[in-house]
Amino acid sequence: MELILKALGTLFSVLIYPGFLFVSAVGLLLAGFDRKVLARMQKRVGPPLLQPAYDFFKLLGKETLVPSRANKAVFLAAPVIGTASLAVMMLFLPIFGRAPLSLRADLIVILYLLTIPAVALILGGSASGSPFAGIGISREMVVMMAYELPLILVFLAVARKTGGSELCFSLERIVAWQAEHGPLLFHWAMIPAALAMLFVIPAEVGTQPFDAAEAETEICEGPLIEYSGAPLGLFKLNTAIKMFLMTALFCTLFLGGSGVTVTLGPIWLGAALSALLNTLILLALCLAVTLLCMTLVHAVTARLKIEHLFRFYWTVVAGLALISLILVWLGL
Amino acid sequence: MKEFIVHFPVLAVMVLFLGAFLAEIFGFRSRIARRVILLSCVSVSAAMIFALIPAVFLRGEVLTYWMGAWEPAAGYAIGIGYEIDALGLFFALLVVTTFCLSAVYSLRYMERDRHLGHYTTLFLMLCGSVLGLVLTGDIFNLFVMVEIMTFAAVALTAFRGSSHGALEAAFKYLVIGSIGSGMTLSGIALLYLQCHTLNMAQLSAVLSGGLTPASVFALGLMTAGFGVKAFLVPFHTPAADAYTAAPSSVSMVFSGMVNKAGVYGLIRLVYTVFRAMDRESLQITLIVLGTVTMFAGVTMALAQHDFKRLLAFHSISQIGYVITAVSLGTVLGVSGGLFHAMNHTLFKGLLFLCAGAVYYAAGTTDLDRLGGLSKKMPHTTAFFLIGAFSIAGLPPFNGFASKWFIYQAAWSRAVSTGNFFYTVVTVTAVIVSVMTLASFIKVTQAVFFGQLPAQLSQVREVPLTMRIPMAVLSLGCLAGGLFYPFVSETLLAPAAKAVFTPSVYIDAMMGAGTAQAAGVTDAAAAALAVPGTWDPVLWLILLVIVLLAFFLVILTGEKTRGAVLDDGGQEDDGRYATFFGGERALPSHVSGSDLFWGFRKNWDGYFRIAQGLHSGRVNDYASYAVIGAVVLIIVIFLIFGFR
User: Is B563's CB within 8 Å of A63's CB?
Assistant: First the structure.
């Protein structure tokens, strides 16, 4: 009986909250929000908030075409694997100290799990056999090399700050440290790292000006060029989920803490209410971060060339992260 | 049974050498005799090595065997002794796994070559020498094995002498390899002069009395010598040519066990014989070597146009990881390094076999002339992807698990010592990992996906006996990643313990109490504890749940999904005239060497220098090796404080 309940609980976590359904819904909402605010900044009316969700369901109903040059199995499996790995990733992020399923992961694992959806996109594009996709995947890979250096520097700065002279890659411990000492963002030595992380997010998600890999106007969405129907919808969903995951990761690393605890009525009601409240707070923070690092930047900049993008990340962004790491290393 | 097992270590080596002679006598005419000799020798040898697992890994014994029962008398070891501790057996397991799979693979892979009797002989000599090298307890015997290994490897490199560059590659290997062997031999001679013994256990006991300048010189010479055998930068130069020119079944053996022999020698030397790793400056020297090796290897790999040459540079790079990790001097670091050595044997062997399969099927390994093979060779593609994911360190494959060990070991050194140098090492390791991923994406795109050139339209999947070794290695890659706690408990922890307990090694060989009498005490090494949390099995289960949910949705959906859009090879079809303006589609396969332009452009200066240094001239390479060795020896002298 207990086993069945546990299995049901696991299923619920994986498929509904905070797994697949939850991240999809929130991700699509964030994407809609991004588009709406962007439109308002450009003095357009913009699509309704739910437009990305409408698009996704519309694409599900469309015919799926597979080019004759494509490797059908990889071409169709890639988007599914990408989405699934993203959905599972959310289970590793503690929502204000409470990791569902008591799944724990450390920063290195997160760093590598984040590469799986990117590799899925690359393989899918590669398997389509289109030359546009060939260019797209090469750029996607270069973008990945570009942001990996600042990302690991940020992670190490966080680990050094929270762990001191101990190895501390565990997200739970990082959140616990912040609950005690206040969010990392408010420690001035970490501010450059937070800025660097804010730059990493749009590159990881692939929004303008760091969207050289998909560049609609030059290479017709690169890896996605041959995709149609449900697989295309899944890739769009991936981007939306990534938006949420990356901003949530930012919140965990820099704005973490114990969250709020409600003690109301029976234990289960209090727990449910505090989970709900914490989730809502996380959502609000994610919205703010999205607005800051994606929508605003998107509205005022044009797309970077791939070689400039790489240089930008390895000099400016990595430099910011390195400043933090050195400051933290000096004990500040 | 027990009295037979005592003889297994030496028999396992002898069977292979015996097979080499038999193959020369009976194998030059008859294919069946050749195959019977090859397969029976490797399988008997492997079975004997596997039979040692219970004693060494489970019961924690150290097995010894004295040739002709010449046991030490009056505290002096005169005869040749074999000593099998967990470290030696760990490497022996890698060796037997590699040569068994390579032997099965070569049955069909080599069928179009001539002089296969000689191939079998050389192959068995190579296997026997590496196996003897990791099992022996005598340092001169070790040198003899190194020599047999080098010359068999040189001859196998030149085996396809008619193909482009094979003789040149063999010549380079011969020259650089001889420099390494010469240095090793001089080092051994100096040690013999100082200590009057060649037994490694006794050497260790004698050297605990303090190092003379001559023995420090010996350490420098032998470190450089084994560095050549492990192909560390700047001694790595012959590796690229040799791995490329040799048949793939041999390239697999090279990267699976020949360069591991150098790694093993290095570990044995600095940890057991000299016990010098408690000096942090020596650790840092070796870590610098390792880190430079992994970085130089991967960047050179990014610039390659040939499948096997690219793999060769990745071999160099991955050995850099191994050396970096074992030089960290902590239990976690050594276990991570050994784990990565094991994983490298699995995934690099797999990748070389895939390259061989491509060569067998398509007749070339040039990335610019291949493409679209995934439809013709679906199994090879799947195996290749597993190998590529493993080497790039994607969870849940084995490369991730060992790299994860290494990052944690490097970072915990960084924070516990407060030395920023280790942070640089950690960051370099992560960046090298993503560059590895990039270059395998390049191979994937250039060989297996993209467009199929017209001349490759007749390509067919390789025969079953070539696919079986690939399948076995793929399973190994997956299992090693999923069940890493099991691997680290049963294999890595005993092997790492053997590295940190030289007194056990000495006592087993020279009799109990020798180590204590010589003043050898083991530093209290912590038990292997992996600090992080990562449960790949659970992760995979969750992933599968989500995937199942997807497939349920897809199965219940409409059945008309997945129509094939036919646009291939029909440029005359008017339907597409709108899109192409009536023109024929442009030749549009993006070939491998053009990928990552945005990256290359920023590194132009670096690549110009690096490619200029890899000039291909053997004179240059020999001078790098000599200069590198001289610098290394000077550094080691400085570390030990003789001026």
Answer: yes
- Report CB contact under 8 Å: B395, A167: no
Tens digits of residue pLDDT in A67-100 = 777 777 788 888 888 888 888 887 777 776 565 5
Q: What's the rounded Cα separation, in Å, for the pair A193 and A317?
A: 9
Task: Supply angle C-alpha B163, B165, B168, rounded to 5.
Answer: 130
CB contact under 8 A, A325 and B423: yes
What is this model's ipTM? 0.89
Output the pLDDT for position B531: 66
H/E run at residue B551:
helix B536-556
Distance between CA atoms of residues A53 and A240, nearest Å: 10
Residue A78 domain-assigned? yes
Task: Specify if A82 maps to a domain.
Answer: yes
Please give the structure tokens belonging to residue B293: 């090796």
CA distances for A222 relative to A78, A303, B46, angstroms: 15, 15, 49
Q: What integer pLDDT is reported at residue A277 of this predicted model? A: 79
Q: Are B154 and B177 in contact (CB under 8 A)?
A: yes
To which H or E segment does residue B66 belong?
strand B63-66
For residue A55, the one-letter residue type is D
C-alpha B392/C-alpha B379 separation (Å) is 20
Chain A residue numbers with beta carbons less than 8 Å from the beta carbon of B415 are 159-160, 163-167
> pLDDT, tens digit, for every residue of B330-347?
888 898 999 999 999 999
pLDDT at residue B591, as a whole number: 54
Q: Report pLDDT for B627.
A: 92
Residues from chain B contacting residue A84 (CB–CB below 8 Å): 543, 546-547, 550
Closest residue in A to B424 (Cα–Cα) = A153
More confident residue, B538 or B19: B19
* A123 falls within a domain: yes
Q: How far is B590 from chain A (nearest CA, A)?
A: 6
B416 Cβ under 8 Å from any chain A Cβ: yes
Which of helix, strand or coil describes residue B136?
A: strand
Q: How far apart are the first and last CA of chain B?
A: 56
Q: Which residues of B touch A215 (CB under 8 A)?
A: none
Query: For position A332, what pLDDT does the model report?
Result: 75
Q: For chain A, how many helices (H) and strands (E)?
A: 15, 1
User: Would you place residue B592 in the very low, low, confident or very high pLDDT band (cuts 50, 70, 90)?
Assistant: low
Residue-level pLDDT at B130: 92
- Let me know: does B198 contact B177? Beta carbons within 8 Å: no
Strands (E), B167-231: none
If one counts every other C-beta atom within 10 angstroms of the C-beta of residue B420, the result is 13
Cis preceding linkage at A117, omega within 30: no
- Map out the domains of chain B as residue ranges: 2-543+592-640
Query: In chain B, count of helices (H) and strands (E)?
Result: 29, 3
Which three-class secondary structure state does DSSP give residue B65?
strand
Domain count for chain A, please give it: 1
Chain A residue nearest residue B452, CA to CA: A69
Which of the given ranges, A201-205, B185-189, B274-278, B592-596, has the highest pLDDT on average?
Answer: B185-189
Distance of CA B539 to the CA centre of its chain: 29
Question: A116 to chain B nearest CA, in Å?
Answer: 7
Task: Please answer whether residues A229 and B561 qualify as being in contact, where contact means their C-beta atoms are separated by less than 8 angstroms.
Answer: yes
Report if residue A159 sits inside a domain.
Answer: yes
Least confident of A272-281, A304-313, B462-471: A272-281
Domain of residue A298, residue span:
56-329
Select from A11, A83, A103, A109 the residue whose CB has the most chain B CBs within 10 Å, as the one to mutate to test that interface: A109
Instruction: Note the helical H segments in B110-138.
Output: 116-135
Average pLDDT, integer, range A307-315:
88
Pick from B32, B639, B551: which is nearest to B278 by CA? B639
Interface contact A126-B441, CB threshold 8 A: yes
CB–CB contact B374 A74 (8 Å): yes
